AAA domain-containing protein (Rubricoccus marinus), 261 residues
Amino acid sequence: MRVIAFSNLKGGSSKTTSSLAVAAELARRGRRVLLVDLDPQATLTKSAGLDPSHAAAQYLKGEIEAAAAVLRPEGLWDKPLAENGGALHLVPASRQLVQFEGQAVARLANRLVALLDAVEADYDFVVIDSPPQASALVTATLASADEVYVPVASGRGALDGLVDVVELSKRFGTTPVSGAFATRVNVSSHHDLDLAEYVAQQVAGPDGEGGLKTYIRETVRVRESEMARVPLPFYDRASTAAQDYAALADEIEARPSPRII
Ligand SMILES: Nc1ncnc2c1ncn2[C@@H]1O[C@H](COP(=O)(O)OP(=O)(O)OP(=O)(O)O)[C@@H](O)[C@H]1O
Ligand SMILES: [Mg+2]
């Protein structure tokens, strides 16, 4: 099992879009994937077509066990996945997660690690979506993930959040950032293409060589899939961003699992 987190301290940097698209793409390929929504905004939960629930907060508080925190949605996209051997399950979020923002990181991280240990045999990938702004929720995410990827959305101050995540991981001695990639890239803009290249170069790959090659193109399909509450790879697999997320999933899958040493 590989534990992947998408993190960036800047709001609106495509963390949730990337978490859901990569997780759904991996599930589509027959991987068993557990999404963990740790953002009090519960955007991932809603974008996946589910209702916010207190499951994540109750689990972190120790009120319920891991098995009770995992939602196995019966919906439009779980049947084709099951036929393929894949699964896309979710630990849903709600506003109640706000109470953990200022909590001790170690306690929260221990509880998250206990969740990961409990589901180790059931999933190939766990994908954690973290909130913006530095908080115990973000630090605990960085501390419990094996791989941290930073999406950087094109726009003013785009790189600030990347620098912040790298610094936070250094300060707390957590997993170093595994990769960074640009999102919302307009291919007719030289600025966007330059940014994409620059972002990729900021974090070397696991072999010390080049970083991620993929960047994600801007398309209205992303917003449409959110409104439809259907993960992008199921909503429109032919869309540019879905193709780019498939390429990103390829790159991530091709990397060695940090857990198998
Ligand atoms: N490739 C894309 N093309 C067009 N729009 C996109 C793309 N990726 C993300 N967006 C849009 O950018 C906005 C922010 O994306 P998202 O919610 O994934 O960011 P976030 O980092 O999770 O935000 P927050 O910090 O609030 O959690 C969304 O409205 C989404 O529709
Ligand atoms: Mg988000």
Remarks:
- The mean pLDDT is 92.
